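<goal> How does this chain fold?
<body> The protein record starts here
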Amino acid sequence: MGFSLPVFLLVGLAHQRAGASLSRGDWGRLFVLGCLGYYGASILDFWGLQFISAGLERLILFTYPTLTILIGVLFQGKPFSKREGLAVALCYIGIGFAFLHDLGQGDSRSVWIGSALVFASSVSYALYLSGSAPMIARLGAMRFSALAMLMSSAVTLLHFACSPPLTAFIQPLPVYGWGLAMALFATVVPVFAQSAAIRSLGAGRTSLFGMVGPLLTIGFGWWLLDEPISLAQIVGAALVLIGILQVSRR
């Protein structure tokens, strides 16, 4: 987040001069969305991973597209088409297949605690996606992304500053290289790309396309980490892709 901060600051300043002034309510909404999206969702997810396996965590985490669509239907008056319903069903059946073999066994209390934390992360991210759509319509994708991420970065760095020891900043040089790469290619680029997608497709449909994420995780795990791919994962990947194609036919 520290490496990402200068980029968001520059983009935010450039678009702030060109755009209309923000009200106190706008700043409040930006702060809440920043806390929900890239701070709240991340920290809850990491806490949950201390209790459950990565396979179970991913399975729970990728409930956020359904939650995003449900929030839109229940609280924002958005329609829920049969095509979207079929796409959601196919995607979640596929996610279930893809991670069926990866579900870990453990202490039931830990599983309940970890699952609740990861589900809270999914809810937090779904709220961020749902709340970002009207803000993007008003402010534009670039301006909203930069300002919301500035809020999120500030809260993240404040949390880190309050969590001793600060000697955690002292790391080998390659760690900073990977941190910079993650800041650019796993934070800055996806944030602006996602906001542009929400502007074009809406939050619900954009979240459905996000279902391809765990499939890419499987592929990169096989390619880069020599993780085996099972028949269940192949079947799951096919179902998710069919679901995405179903909702994007137009």
Summary: The mean pLDDT is 81. The chain is about 80% helix and 0% strand. The first helix runs from residue 5 to 18. The radius of gyration is 19 Å.
